[in-house]
Design brief:
The protein is of the alpha/beta class and about 220 residues long. The protein has eight helices and eight strands, in the order αβαβαβαβαβαββααβ.
């Protein structure tokens, strides 16, 4: 986090978690519901709430993480548009109140050693799939150079289908963002370019670079 700009996204992989914006008209974003599994430093939650003006829900297991985000990382207080849920994400996302009600799901769940995703099973991705609205999308942070990367892709493909999956090339640190669509689509290149330009001008994210990095698994 940049202390003078606490609601901007500083890390490259975190910026790439927003690649789903390429699949949404900018005019619709503020009417949508974003959910984060794993609060981390609150970057995605703050950006979706403050910059994108979305209804935002974050699910975090560790109360100390939530406290740290409020004390040091300028996490806003809960309100009608912002909900911080202290719970085990694996259990919380099975609640009926969320099913089919999440437009954007952002998953960044690693243990304290950042060795592997904490939740990475077919049943977990099936629960994520059930969360999503008909045109919903999920982005997941994985380590692309890790041996488990292909296994994670295969699990997501079992649930979403390979035609619904997109990947970005790894960052220098090895983070690879995977995007999964509830319903596969193939936006044409001119539309993606137009949306990338809007994303850069409106929210300051390097979306035109994403177009050079993203590829479909179909």
């Amino acid at each position: 986090m940049l202390t003078e700009q606490p609601y901007d996204l500083a890390l490259e992989y975190v910026q790439r978690m927003m690649v789903w914006l390429l699949f949404r008209p900018a005019t619709e974003v503020a009417q949508r519901h974003a959910m984060q599994l794993g609060l981390g430093a609150g970057a995605l939650t703050k950006f979706c709430f403050k910059k994108l003006r979305m209804r935002t829900t974050a699910i975090e297991l560790n109360p100390q993480v939530v406290q740290a985000c409020r004390l040091w990382f300028k996490l806003p207080a809960p309100c009608d548009r912002l909900q911080i849920v202290l719970a085990d994400a694996a259990q919380e996302i099975r609640k009926t109140q969320y099913l089919g009600a999440v437009d954007v799901l952002q998953v960044d769940l690693y243990d304290h050693e950042a060795a592997a995703p904490v939740l990475d099973s077919i049943s977990f991705y099936a629960d994520c799939h059930r969360l999503l609205a008909e045109d919903g999308v999920m982005t997941v942070n994985l380590f692309g150079r890790d041996a488990s990367f292909e296994q994670s892709l295969d699990k997501m493909a079992d649930v979403f289908g390979r035609s619904a999956l997109w990947t970005l090339r790894p960052t220098r640190e090895g983070n690879t963002v995977v995007l999964a669509q509830r319903q596969p689509s193939r936006p044409d290149r001119p539309l993606l370019v137009q949306r990338a330009q809007v994303i850069e001008s409106r929210w300051g994210l390097p979306a035109q670079k994403w177009l050079r990095l993203i590829q479909s698994l179909a």
